[in-house]
Each structure stands twice: as structure tokens, then as C-alpha cells.
TrEMBL record:
Pfam families: Methyltransf_11. Gene3D superfamilies: Vaccinia Virus protein VP39. It comes from Microbacterium murale. One of its GO terms (biological process) is methylation. This is SAM-dependent methyltransferase. Residues 52-139 form the Methyltransferase type domain. Coiled coil: none annotated. GO terms for molecular function: methyltransferase activity. Keywords: Methyltransferase, Transferase.
Length: 251
């Protein structure tokens, strides 16, 4: 089990701050959604006058844009990510604000004509609608239902009720209830291949909501079983789901 222990140590020591996944580039692959969110985001930022990016992580996706509007703000709740995002975005004129997940957004009503997010933790539709100007848009890529559940259920067992969470139909209903009109919705199911147990440890440390309370010590036995499966099969296959959503405040 020397290889197993070495891989466990590698995954445990890897830096999990930010929203980049470069560390697992040679250890796991994931299909990308067909619509190209970063490109579409950049197009919308070019024509906005005041933009807000929610749950920006380390700012990596937002930083791919070639230009920003005169007013550009991003929020992030986790201090290490906020610091990382500030270092990346502030030199380009984007202000990063610490904002708690369950509190109101610290901005005036109608402050932005564009609100964006890539993989928000939980969209707060009423707050999104509040800070949007009339005619303004929310444009985002969300994680969909049962994303990564083959891996999640390997550790937690069947999760039938949780599989419904983040369903795009529910999000459309919630957006409309907040006074937004959904003008575009696209969905994709994407293949993920994980090639070693170090990548599993890294992902479960980074995506903390997948297996809440995950530690190597707590799940060492299951990790060892999964390591053997990966060695035998060459990869562990799971799937992510994504949806692109655009909603407009019409009144």
C-alpha cells in the first residue's frame, strides 16, 4: 500500500484555495459545457456599465475577461479565496467584497445592470433581483442536480432526496417568484474521469459539500477500496451536470 499512502499524502497536501483545478489536470478530466461560459461572460462584461460577480472564488473565471465595465465588483465569503481574488482582480479595477452566504448583499437597490456567477453556492434570487436595475440581467452557470453523485454515493451511500437539489426547473420557478424572467436555459451532462486517489482526496477537500465532514482518517477504508478500483479499472467515472441560465428584471 505504499503507492496508496503516497497518493493520499499528495492529495492531502495540495492547496485547495481558489476555483482553479490545475492541480488535478493530469489526474482527472472533465468534459466542458458546450456553450463556453467564460467567453459569453466576457461578451456581456464589455457592454455592461456596472457588474457584480457573486461567489467569485479566487477570481479565476472572472479574470479571463479582457475588459471590465466602469463599476466592477465581486463577492466571496471564504477569506482565503477573497484574498486570492483581490490579488488577481484589484489591479484590473475589480473591487472584491467579503459577503456572507446567508446575509443580504451589501449593495443598494438597482445598483447593477449585470449580475453574474459561475457555480454559486445557492442563488439568492430575491437579492439578485433587488440589486439589478430594471432591464438588467443575471447571467450564470450553475451546478445542476446529482453532480458527482457516483463519487458522493460511493462514500455516503444512496442519496435519493439529495439528487433533486439544484434542479433547473426549481431554479427557474424560484427566479420567477423573485420577479425575474428567465430568457435562456441550457443543460448539459458531462463525463468526469478520475485517475488516482490523490485527485479524489483533493476534490473532496475542495468541494466540501460533496462529502460533508470528509477527512482522510474518517474515510480511509473507503479510500483504500476506491484506490483498488481505480488501479483495476484505470479510472473512476462520475458525471457532472451544469446549466446556463439568463434571467432579466423586467420591472
Amino acid at each position: 500500500m505504499a503507492e496508496f499512502e503516497e497518493l493520499i499524502e499528495l492529495g492531502s497536501a495540495a492547496d485547495v484555495t481558489g476555483w482553479g483545478f490545475d492541480w488535478v489536470a493530469d489526474r482527472a478530466t472533465e468534459e466542458r459545457p458546450p456553450w463556453g461560459y467564460a467567453r459569453l461572460l466576457a461578451e456581456r462584461l464589455r457592454t455592461a456599465s456596472a457588474a457584480l460577480d457573486l461567489d467569485t472564488g479566487g477570481g479565476e473565471v472572472l479574470a479571463e475577461a479582457d475588459t471590465f465595465p466602469p463599476v466592477a465588483v465581486a463577492t466571496e465569503s471564504w477569506a482565503p479565496n477573497a484574498a486570492r481574488a483581490t490579488a488577481l482582480l484589484y489591479p484590473r479595477g475589480v473591487v472584491v467584497v467579503r459577503a456572507e452566504q446567508d446575509g443580504p448583499l451589501p449593495f443598494a437597490d438597482g445598483a447593477f445592470d449585470l449580475v453574474t456567477s459561475r457555480h454559486p453556492v445557492a442563488p439568492r434570487w430575491a437579492e439578485i433581483a433587488r440589486v439589478l436595475q430594471t432591464g438588467g440581467s443575471y447571467f450564470a452557470q450553475h451546478v445542476g442536480p446529482a453532480s458527482g453523485f457516483e463519487l458522493i454515493e460511493f462514500f455516503l451511500g444512496p442519496q435519493p432526496e439529495a439528487r433533486r437539489g439544484r434542479h433547473p426547473d426549481d431554479e427557474v420557478a424560484a427566479a420567477e417568484a423573485a420577479g425575474l424572467e428567465v430568457v435562456d436555459l441550457r443543460e448539459a451532462t458531462l463525463r468526469i474521469e478520475i485517475f488516482d486517489i490523490a485527485a479524489v482526496v483533493y476534490l473532496l477537500r475542495k468541494l466540501v459539500w460533496w462529502v460533508p465532514g470528509f477527512t482522510v482518517e474518517r474515510y480511509r477504508e473507503r479510500l483504500a477500496e476506491l484506490h483498488e478500483l481505480i488501479v483495476a479499472d484505470g479510472a473512476f467515472v462520475t458525471h457532472s451536470t451544469r446549466h446556463l441560465i439568463e434571467a432579466r428584471r423586467s420591472g
